């Protein structure tokens, strides 16, 4: 019998790619999403790629009564992957209460539902923002978390603490937090990809929209950082590689291999790439020019961060596979289909 997984935020960018990988791996998927930052048409792309249209429920999990009704309706659940969250760093600085209300309430409602409905396993979509600006690079899982640079980052730290404390108090529950670095790219089929509503907050969709002529030019926020070329450095991971890490994490929980009720892993490539290097790679892989200008620094941005992934590679048996050029070409191919 197929194992059933709830994917919250499953029509979103990372969620939709993870649904594809789950279905390709033989899981039954139910998506819970309020479509605040995604479109229902994403289900069509998922169905074309995997041959299966997942069950979908439009629901706001931050509303307790809606969450409770959802979990009463869907029984026999083996695990939850929780993506649903507000996720723009800059917006969180301007609207902190929106971020705290949405991101914390949805997680707490889900954990309550897990207790009430005997759902034992949770994979949580966390972020490398929990490390703040680290003192040493690359960051390992033992790198101390720092005070967050943004309310968004702080919600990820608080959510991790909530999961840790809840699994400690309720040993029948298990959780894995995956600390993402910077997901980019699109499915190689070009049927799903990053689809921000309105002006993109992330680098790659803004870049591809600029090259497509939708935006006049790309702003590079700062060239006076203490990096090789003065622009910020991040660890950019292909979204399909990231999606596969979620499948591995679910399988780890279901096989009861983990020694602890709560674990966390870095999910990145292990390499740091600057914003200006991203532009170079994009131009090289696509043959397209990127109109861009240097502007001032952006609130909430950290200077540089990239992962040491040796622990997740060893423990999960997972590693990133796709190159930066291949990933950026997939992002451009996706943009062209739009």
TrEMBL record:
PANTHER family referenced in this protein's UniProt entry, alphabetically: UDP-GLUCOSE 4-EPIMERASE
Domain spans labelled NAD-dependent epimerase/dehydratase: 5-267
First-level EC class: isomerase
Required cofactor(s): NAD(+)
Pfam families hit by this protein: Epimerase
UniProt pathway annotation: Carbohydrate metabolism; galactose metabolism
One of the GO biological process terms: galactose metabolic process
Keyword field: Carbohydrate metabolism, Galactose metabolism, Isomerase, NAD
Lineage: Bacteria, Pseudomonadati, Bacteroidota, Bacteroidia, Marinilabiliales
Protein name from the UniProt record: UDP-glucose 4-epimerase
Assembly and oligomerization: Homodimer.
Enzyme Commission designation: 5.1.3.2
Transferase recorded as keyword: no
InterPro entries: Epimerase_deHydtase, NAD(P)-bd_dom_sf, UDP_G4E
Any one GO CC term of the record: cytosol
Family: Belongs to the NAD(P)-dependent epimerase/dehydratase family.
């Amino acid at each position: 019998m197929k194992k059933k997984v709830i994917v919250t935020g499953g029509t979103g960018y990372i969620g939709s790619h993870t649904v594809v990988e789950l279905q390709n791996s033989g899981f039954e998927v139910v998506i819970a999403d309020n479509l605040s930052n995604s479109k229902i048409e994403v289900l069509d792309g998922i169905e074309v790629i995997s041959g299966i249209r997942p069950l979908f429920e439009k629901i706001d999990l931050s509303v307790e009564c809606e969450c409770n009704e959802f979990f009463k309706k869907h029984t026999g659940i083996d695990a939850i992957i929780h993506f649903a969250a507000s996720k723009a760093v800059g917006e969180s600085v301007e609207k902190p209460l929106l971020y705290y209300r949405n991101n914390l309430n949805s997680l707490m409602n889900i954990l309550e539902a897990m207790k009430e409905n005997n759902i034992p396993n949770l994979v949580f979509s966390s972020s490398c923002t929990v490390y703040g600006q680290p003192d040493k690079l690359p960051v390992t899982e033992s790198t101390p978390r720092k005070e967050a640079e943004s309310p968004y980052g702080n919600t990820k730290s608080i959510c991790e603490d909530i999961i840790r404390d809840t699994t400690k108090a309720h040993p029948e529950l298990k959780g894995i937090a995956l600390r993402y670095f910077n997901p980019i790219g699109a499915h190689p089929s070009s049927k799903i990809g990053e689809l921000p509503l309105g002006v993109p907050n992330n680098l790659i969709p803004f870049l591809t929209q600029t090259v497509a002529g939708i935006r006049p030019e790309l702003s590079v926020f700062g060239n006076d950082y203490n990096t090789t070329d003065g622009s910020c450095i991040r660890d950019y991971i292909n979204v399909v590689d990231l999606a596969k890490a979620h499948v591995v994490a679910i399988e780890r929980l279901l096989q009861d291999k983990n020694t602890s009720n709560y674990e966390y892993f870095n999910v990145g490539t292990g390499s740091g790439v600057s914003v200006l290097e991203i532009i170079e790679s994009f131009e090289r892989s696509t043959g397209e020019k990127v109109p861009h200008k240097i502007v001032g620094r952006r609130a909430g941005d950290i200077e540089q961060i990239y992962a040491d992934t040796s622990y997740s590679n060893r423990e999960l048996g997972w590693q990133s596979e796709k190159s930066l050029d291949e990933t950026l070409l997939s992002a451009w191919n996706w943009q062209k289909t739009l």
